[in-house]
Design goal:
Helices cover 75% and strands 0% of the residues. The chain is mainly α and 314 residues long. Helix 5 packs antiparallel against helix 14 (270-278) and helix 8 crosses helix 12. The protein is globular and about 60 Å long.
């Protein structure tokens, strides 16, 4: 009986992972192809023009607008590649400047793709995109102002990141994307299994109690606890995969979904993305702890506004 129970659980996990992956691939594939075309036509650079005054406002060289625009449209790694290519033309950068630039990328990257993923979780596209963009600029300005006022992190940054130059042929790119999609499915499948194990051993209940103060701040139910951990550690893509599956089962309310997606939008993939950005010479305190603080403050404000609106409506 235990063998059949295990087989049934694996079968259910595979089925859930397949359904969720198909929903995500409907988003990933067309957007990936569109961004590839824009990159080949060298049109990404035009998205950087409106960002040049923003860069100056944040105490950064205007040329870094191209690097951030690349991150907004594509991903963090593409942004860092552009950053490195711009280095010969840039003035020496301080730890503060690199930290501010890194914070912009960590909060607001892959906005088109991740905004569409949020839409798949029944969270509106534009509010998510605008929230992350505005939050990134506000957080960057606040950090820049504090560092300038108190003289924090004004030493020269030591940049250790050197992106790997990869084959750019179309066939290689297609094969690379296929591998990425297979990896996405495998990770989601494993997360579905882990989720069932956590529920079986009541680890989810323990996590809910452990994260109770956090859940109270952002106004979500205990059902969101493990999903938050997936997103914070693994990334928004995988966290949203769990959300899609749970939303179908009715385990999450609309408010839970919105609150968790907003929190994860600001603070997801904390380990990998933070370590990668830190190779540019930024401060881990600014890149990790400050980003978490921003996520908590934003989520708290959204929760307070939601309560106020509900009270006013009553």
């Amino acid at each position: 009986m235990k063998f059949f129970s295990l087989f049934s659980s694996l079968k259910d996990a595979f089925s859930d992972a397949s359904n969720v992956s198909i929903e995500l691939f409907k988003i990933l594939i067309p957007i990936t192809i569109t961004l590839k075309i824009l990159t080949e036509l060298d049109w990404i650079q035009y998205t950087a023009l409106p960002l040049e005054p923003v860069m100056s406002f944040l105490g950064l060289p205007a040329a870094l607008g191209l690097a951030w625009a690349t991150g907004i449209m594509l991903n963090i790694y593409s942004s860092l590649f552009v950053f490195i290519s711009l280095m010969p033309s840039l003035p020496p950068l301080s730890v503060e400047q690199v930290t501010v630039f890194g914070l912009l990328n960590l909060i607001a990257h892959s906005l088109i793709l991740e905004g569409r993923i949020a839409s798949a979780c029944n969270v509106s596209f534009w509010p998510q995109v605008l929230t992350r963009f505005v939050t990134a600029v506000a957080a960057g300005f606040f950090l820049h102002t504090i560092c300038t006022a108190f003289g924090f992190w004004q030493d020269a940054a030591v940049i250790a990141f050197h992106p790997e130059v990869r084959e750019t042929s179309l066939l290689f790119w297609i094969w690379d994307q296929i591998q990425n999609y297979l990896a996405v499915f495998f990770v989601i499948f494993m997360l579905m299994i882990v989720q069932r194990i956590l529920k079986y051993f009541h680890v989810t209940d323990f996590l809910s109690k452990l994260l109770k103060p956090v859940l109270l701040i952002i106004g979500t139910s205990p059902a969101a606890a493990s999903i938050m951990i997936y997103g914070i550690v693994m990334g928004l893509l995988y966290g949203s995969g769990i959300i899609i599956n749970e939303a179908r089962k009715g385990s999450l309310s609309a408010h839970d979904t919105f609150a968790v997606m907003t929190f994860m939008g600001i603070a997801h993939s904390l380990i990998e993305d933070t370590l990668v950005i830190s190779l540019l010479g930024g401060s881990l305190i600014g890149l990790l702890l400050f980003r978490l603080a921003v996520a908590f403050v934003l989520s708290f404000c959204i929760n307070m506004y939601s309560k106020y609106r509900n009270t006013a409506a009553a």
